[in-house]
Design goal:
The chain has helices spanning 3-20, 25-38, 44-48, 54-71, 74-86, 90-108, 110-128, 133-146, 155-164, 178-199, 209-212, 235-238, 240-244, 279-289, 332-336, 375-379, 399-413, 415-418, 425-438, 453-472, 474-486, 491-506, 511-528, 533-545, 554-560, 567-592, and strands spanning 219-224, 247-253, 256-259, 272-276, 291-293, 310-316, 339-345, 348-350, 364-369, 383-385. It is α+β, with helices and mostly antiparallel strands and 595 residues long. The longest helix has 26 residues, at 567-592.
Amino acid sequence: MSPIAITLILLVVAVVLFATEKIPVDVVGILLVIGLVLTNVLTVQEGLSGFGDNVIITIAGLFILTGGLVKTGIVDLIGRRLYKIAGSNEFLLTALIMSVAAVSASVLKNTTTTAMFLPVVIGLASRAKVPPSKLLMPLAFGAILGGSCTLIGTSTNLAVSGAMQRYGMEPYSMFELTPVGIIMVVVGLIYMLFVGRKFLPNLGGEDSFTEQYHIREYISEVLVLPGSHLIGRTLGEANLNLELDLNVLGIIRGQEQRIAPNSNEQIAEGDLLIVEGTLANILNIKGEAGLEIKADFELNDRDLESGEIELFEIMVMRDSRLVGNTLKTINFRRSYDLTVLAINRHGETFLDKISSLRLKFGDVLLVQGNRRLIEPFVIAGEMLLLEDVSTSSMRTEKRRWAIAAFGLFLALSLSKLVIGFDVPLAIAVLLGVLLLLATRTVRHNEVYTLINFRLLVLIACMMSFGIAMEKTGADKYLAGLIVEYFQQYGATAVLAGFFVLTVALTQPMSNQAAALVVLPVAVKTAIALGLNPRTFVVAITFAASFSFITPLEPACVLVYTPGRYRFMDFVKIGTILTIVVFIVSIILVPIFWKF
């Protein structure tokens, strides 16, 4: 079999695996590189060359610089001032949220920006009495649009910039994409304010979690009767959770009420137990355990909260150890000393047998307990608390150093324009990181927890795949087919075709992978047609960033469940926005980057 055939077959297999998400994207990338090496398409050195590219160091450093801004609460400070400006005006709130998200994403990346602003916007929606669904999709879309404005706005921009050098092109400058990126933001903002906003659903914002999750029918109050075999046993010994699939959320003993009792709490005669479970399970224990259901029980949030014990929501983040596990396998209640009452996934609420449900990125858990216990996991990026974050755990006194470190990086990245001396981007970002470490804005033991190694591995592997495309001539082969069948329609039509192809691939695949798969073919096509390859590269860069059609883009995944959106909400609103930015791109890119 020819090297071209092997390379294209491996490409198809990789695309299918990316789309199905049965295997993590970084593992797919590693398998792709291994396949190329074992089939002798690449040498070992060529297969691993992507890991030594300076773009990997640059992206890793940017994760740390961004972490410095997060840990000092700068975004939280910005968010708290939005309500003072907009008040309860939904139109103005939408405009401000999208604008601030776009500006922030231009330096912080769109997923990071969305994650940081998500709790703040939910808090704003609550204070303004606006349904969260009216503000969260604009937040995600604003961040995605803003990420297209600068070199560091998305990891995709950096990955493409690094790959460009292999084709003899200068990498992107810091603000090369900015003029068209700003126009995209403005056009997207106008669309969302005057068209998209009208299609947003009116969901969320219920007065209480018990109403929002409809858990009243799953929680009852039962009386411990005389002679019950549970009397004198601790909750741990009774083991109602595992044996009968019931959670004891509280104990009422006379005038005393204990919410979220620990496993050592003894059950006494006459206790009223607040239990969560299906009616069938509760009826089952009536005979077995000597319990009687209290018929006149009416549930509200106050029945499940007391002192430091509260109800709150947490979201499972992409790199959390919860992903792929069940509450039972990780022994969530004992490990975290918290009780999960319900799980919401993309608008569907799970209340029955939730301990055996395998968790996914973006799941929202309704939790009962002390929220301070979850803070270490929030800080580590495993979970996201869906409310305004307390500044108690933030290093607010280090804000000036976080800003100074990012400012140093930006200044050095523009050194060629200012002083005529070019400081490599990787060196600029490392100097910024050293300033964060020297001032203890970010501590040494936190550095590696801030880096998304999965993304770095994916980008490195796909850059190595680009070498395989070029070495085997697979890129020239595909480019030849495109030229043969589409040259007659003109340069603009071919450019539009690559844009649409990239947008289509970003729906099932990661943005970075989609861009790096299309890039070598687009460059060879442009050369074969006698056109400027940079024009095609820029169009692909923008297309890879604009993933609005489905909620599979990480920024959209983050708002999907908290906004109570349906899949078709993104299809309906995002498709029109994609068409709008497509038209703007096809018009403007050839103007700023001549054919």
